[in-house]
Amino acid sequence: MAKIIPLTDVRASARSAQLLAAATAAGGPAAVAAGFVADTLGRPLRDLRISVTDRCNFRCVYCMPKDVFGRDYPFLPHGELLTFEEIARVARVFKAHGVEKIRLTGGEPLLRRNVESLIELLASIGGLDLTLTTNGALLAKKARSLRDAGLTRVTVSLDALDERVFRAMNDVDFPVGRVLDGIDAAAAAGLAPIKINMVVKRGTNDHEIVPLARRFRGSGHIVRFIEYMDVGSTNGWKMDEVLPAAEVVRRIDAELPLVRVDANYAGETAERWRYRDGGGEIGVIASVTQAFCRDCTRARLSTDGKVYTCLFASEGHDLKALLRGGADDAALERAVAAIWGARADRYSELRTAATAARPKVEMSYIGG
Ligand code: SAM
What we know:
The chain is α/β, with parallel strands linked by helices. It contains 13 helices and 14 strands. It has a twelve-stranded mixed beta sheet with strand order 9-10-11-8-7-6-5-4-3-12-13-14. S-adenosylmethionine binds at residues 56, 62-63, 105-106, 108, 133-135, 157, 197, 199, 226, 228-229, 231, 235, 363-364, 368.
């Protein structure tokens, strides 16, 4: 059995630069070899989400509203992006600390040129569940090459089947049929089981819940209904617009009877339900009304190489500075252990109307 190393000598309140300095001073107080790590609440590190670009070809109103992410928005210059080799190196370091699953995201990950080469590099590490979240716009064209590169599964975001509602939500007039074609191509390429994420915004697309469930029932794909969250600072989030996951389940169950299913593993974000008649399963992600911080085992790597230990964080830890400053793998391992060991985040459990207004990094940059 791997041993959990409690990093009691790293203060939870320490700031990023101090942490990294302590970690890189060989033999310093936070120096640990590679190995499983636990944060201040005893949570292990299991998942890494990697944002490969902060750009997107959609302008979803709840994520990258057009009036903020317009023509003049200062997206990261190319030189600030981690290279594929740098990302793969960071991935190896995280794997050494217990990460088993990597999800590529963004922005829109399929916009990153030659993302297949990155997938090949990550697949060559071995022993990782390698998946990707996409809006599906380019998936019909890329599903086969992603699979050939070593991607195991894919999650596709789809907020409505109704053409008018879908085009209004993506706000670039993108037709729903092309995303459905992408889902079919992913299934044909063997990127299964496919998960389909619907962000539910009360009064905008909540009437699409049952049609979406009905459409994919019996397909083998798993639709997951996500509560609209107060990520970032630009989407004008209001609690009134959150439709609780319990209400999602109630509405589907009234037409397509459901029964609760056990989680696949501790820390699974979605609560699972299956159709009583054997038509497959759905999930609900209740990050607002039933926070699951105590099981959160996820770290995030931003497009420019900062590590964030919470989706709702306002500050990250700059690994790129270490990578480009000549740090060896042992120093990177100590840095990651120190960052995770100091982690105390549980934003969703502490959320109030006041915290929602706090400055937070944008999801398109940190990775959804
Ligand atoms: N572009 C890709 C996509 O559309 O799936 C990946 C990035 S996107 C930020 C990842 C996921 O975050 C999507 O499923 C998106 O719907 C979800 N998301 C974005 N903003 C959200 C919010 N405010 N609340 C809940 N989910 C959100």
